[in-house]
Structures are given as structure tokens and as C-alpha cells.
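Worked Example 4.2. Consider the chain below.
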Amino acid sequence: MNRKLSVQMLLCALLLLISVTSACARSKAPEPKSDPVSPRPDQQSLQLQAELQKTIEQIAAAAKGHVGVAAVVLETNTAVSLNPQDHFPMQSVYKLPISMAVMQQVDAGKLKLEQRVPVTKNDFIGRNARSPIRDQNPKGVELTLGELIRFAIAESDGTASDVLMRVAGGPAAIQTFLTQLGITDMVVLNSEKQMVQDFQLQFKNWATPEAAVALLRALHEKRGLTESSQALLVKFMIESTPGPRRLRDFCLPALLLRTRRELLEAEMASPPPPTISALSRYPTVVTW
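Applying the procedure from the previous section yields the following C-alpha cells:
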């Protein structure tokens, strides 16, 4: 693989969840954490990393907004970032910590994936936000907890996310879960229904790029979750179908979760649902 293609591929992965918004207040730097000893990168890797960093800065300048980026290759801890400790609104990204907190309660026996949860018309988020549950069930519906998690993660359903937050115990329960993971620069404060009604509330539900990557690392390492719960969340993330203008579909097709799934499918005639243990044979790039 030539250098230009390598830079392009990592750049597309890195920009998958990039946040561009108006300048926000700077957060307190998290306490430094000790990382496992990684192999020393060779000269070519260092040069590619420097080129990627320069490219990110050029794109950020052209965006004419406040850009935050963090990307880490978990196997080597190779990282690039831009404004990694600044606050950025999470928007739909906050569905992941909510779903992870719910799955932790499932693992603890407090909740069950098969338990049925009513979704009423009062739970529906506004029409200008995405909610297949609302659109398909205008009078309300009863769904299992597992179905709600799939709707939230794979379908980016705001109604499902709000119901999951309620079932988990509200924003305070989500924050407790994040604190247990050692993630402090991530705030889940409001429901999506509230944020649809008041645009400014999204800025109170923020994360730093570093914290977002730390959450993805925790998911990868199954911290706070059993292997089966982690595998289910990863499965739903893989099954997500973003629009054609999202970078996962728009960039080079050999990147991140979808590519890792395709690599496995090429190896197996009848592949089972992908799991982190199977996917771990391929490099893992986590991005914000």
C-alpha cells in the first residue's frame, strides 16, 4: 500500500465522527493514564502520522468552525488529535453511553433484554428528529429492551434513546456509569425530546474528543460489560445504515467496522455475527 493511500484510508476513518461546531469552552484535562507498552513506530509510520496530522489541520482550517478530532489505533496506541480536550455537543453519539449503561444493568440482573417496555405517544420526540418507532407506530407500541437498544444504535432512533435513558434511571444513572469507567469529560444531561425543543441544550450534552475515544476503548476492552453484551452493541453498530453523505459510506470502502465485517465474511462461507474477538485480528481505529 503506498503512502498516499495509507494516509487517505486513516483520514477517512479518523473523520468518521468529526464534530464541527462553534467555539466552545475548554474542559479540564483528564488525569493522565498509563497505557500499555506499544511497539516503537518505524520512521515511515511516524511520517504518515505527521502527514495525517497536517492534513487534519488543513481540513479544520477550511471548515471555518471549531473542529475536534481524536483517533487512536488501539493495538499500537498511535494517535492523532486536534483540540482533543475541548467541549463538543455529542448529538446522536450520546446514544452509545446510554445503551452501554442499560446493558450494564442487564448484566447485573436489574433489567432483561426480553422484558417488554411500553412506548407511548408522550415518549415520541419531535417530527423534525429521527424516530422510526414514532413513524411506524403513531399510537404507541410495546417493545423489548433489546429491540429498543437496536433502534437506538442501528436506527439512531431518538425516541428509543429517551426510553432507554428512563429505564436506566435517568441522566444521573448514565453519569454514574461513565464515572465508573473513569470517563469524566462526557456529560449526558437531557433527553433528545428536550434537545429537539431547545436547540441550545445540545451544548450541555457534550464530550471531549479524548473522552469519546476513551468510551470506545472501554467498549473494545469490555470494561463494565460482559462479552455477550459488548458483542451485541458492536453488532448493532455494525448494522447501522448511515446516509450516503456520511463518511463511512462516502470514503474509501476499506475502513472501520463495515470493512472489518467484510474481511471476516471473505474468510467464512457462513459467517456468524461479528464479535470483537473475531474482529481483533484486524487493526482497530477508534475515532471522534
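Residues 43-63 form the longest helix (21 residues). The chain is about 45% helix and 10% strand. Compare this with Example 4.1 before moving on.
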